[in-house]
Amino acid sequence: MITNLHIKNIGIIDDLEINLSEGLNVLTGETGAGKTLIIDSLEIISGGRFSKEKIRTGENYSLVEVCIYKPESQYSVDGNIIVSREIYSNGRNLCKINGRMVTVSELKEFMKNIIDIHAQNDNQNLLDSKLHLKYLDNFIGKEIKGIKEQYKEQYIQYIEIAKKLKENYGDEKEKQRKLDLLKYQLKEIENANLKENEEVELEERRKLILNSEKISINLNEADISIGENCIDNIGKAIRSLEKIEIIDEKYETTNSNLKNIYYELQELSRDICSYKEDIYFDEEEREEVESRLHLINSLKKKYGNTVQEILEYGNNIQKEIEVIENLEEYNNKLKNQLKLIEGEMLNKAIKINEIRNKFVQILSNLINEELQELEMKNATVNVQVKFNENQYFESGKDEVEIYIKTNIGEEQHELSKIASGGEMSRIMLAVKSVLANSDEIDVVVFDEIDTGISGKAAKSVSEKMKKIAQNHQILVITHLAVVAASADNNLYISKGIYNSKTRTNVKILQEDEIVEEIARISTGEITETSIKHAKELRENSKVVLRKVS
Fold first, then answer.
1. pTM for this prediction
2. How many structural domains is the chain composed of?
């Protein structure tokens, strides 16, 4: 159950905190005071869509936070779970479950097992055929639970084996397609005849070709400078020093050093001449280098960032081809296992289908009885089970759909295609009434479910809510005095002006205030007569409570 709801900066709600109790929580109050904003906030915390226009004027974010008491949950800390969602004007979402960051999808998945919201234009759970199956199975209870668990264990194995087969190319067409692709890739890499350091050498060669003219000019200048100038002049200097080296030892040492330089310059001159011979390239060689580099770059786009990575990719392809070509024996074993499990699943799915068909009419009849009491006398609900010959699901091979005929003489249609918002809410109330003891959702929210009804139907609505509230926490916005009189917790929603801005307020009503509010709803004003009537309604609700208990 939700013990506390905190809303900040949504519409005219400034900073609102609501304490909720077990059983039936009824919200009443002025039109436009913010009652629907509270329901909107519950939808937001349940992972629903949010429009930034809902952010309170002058603020840049909205916050919804709930404290949920659910001791058996894996998220629970001392029995409590804190769920929050902050939404900023720039579209940023910040969702947390007990302080742990989660995505909006994870939030929605978690909250769908906590809260079930039914508004005039939002009964998504009732339109979800997957939940129709859940409604039926919850109604059936123990008789179907055991065989469903056995089936689910085999279904998990079935999915795992099917996944392995797909990964192992167990499908012959997929296998052949993959082999053809891998062999094409391997042939392309092998035909390229790549060498590990080839790209570096080619790039160096290309650089030389592109700069050959510049290199040639400067090598010639260097050759002339060393050969015609330096070497000849140093030779003359050596001969001059030879004439005086006998006079002093230092001349001999200097001449020796000069000779070493002379020999080194001769060696450098020979190197430069060699370089000059290497820089002459023909057009055919240039095109060959460019073509080879283009091929390598093309392969890099497909198979790796370097020649080394391309070669490694080729080796891996070769291994994968060998694995695929030798998988037949292993895959045949998996296929036999899959066939065996599929046969066992089919037998269980047929039994599950038989059980569901045994109870489906009973469920339909009970819902129709509830609809009669809700003054939908011409409406007939028909819950149907369809056996899908071509597909296995997590809970068998059945698909369950709720059909409805709203008027005598008309054909039945899928619920989602015919019922109005008000009818949908009452149908959901009927379904919830039948499933009151088996439905696993903790919190059920009804937004103005009583629109357009009165009298006997209104009394029936209050009784059914009271019945559901024995096993669930109910939040309902109402304009019916009989519903307000049935509440375990009455909350009055109002609005006021504070610091020149409208702000929503909430107040938990005490018994005398509850009577006054029931009187106000009944007649529009608080009089001695309306107070007396309100007290009678309040007293009658206690009788109803004893009856539904």
1. 0.63
2. 2
